[in-house]
């Protein structure tokens, strides 16, 4: 899609990649994204918005919003592990992964529109 967006009917000026932080990503996953994904996003000036839970409530905060992202944010103000500790729970090992879905919060908030 990035190499030939017109062939896919995509306007990269109107494309946004949303990264929802849980705060507990593996270091290797972040390193690989920074090494292999971010250079492509920068080259094609694709907007990367990184969001996280702002607190125990479902409030969301935008950590980074850039067309030239330099790093994958490691953790926001409220991480998945904070949720586990506050509720006295343990991570799920299989199934639907409701814990990580809840940790990402309700991001259906308005983001700054692109020029599209």
**Total strand segments:** 3
Biggest sheet, strands in spatial order?
Answer: 1-2-3
How many domains, as an integer?
A: 1
Unreliable segments of 5+ consecutive residues: none
- Tell me the overall shape: elongated
Helix run count? 3
Overall residue-averaged pLDDT value: 83
Relative strand content: 15-25%
Q: What is the element string, with H for helices and E for strands?
A: EHEEHH
Structural class: alpha+beta
Helix share, percent: 25-40%
Gyration radius, to the nearest Å?
16 Å
N-to-C CA distance: 18 Å
Q: Let me know the largest β-sheet.
A: 3 strands, mixed
Q: Would you spell out the secondary-structure blueprint of this structure?
A:
Blueprint: E1 16-20, H1 27-43, E2 47-53, E3 60-66, H2 80-87, H3 98-104
Parallel strand pairs: 1-2
Antiparallel strand pairs: 2-3
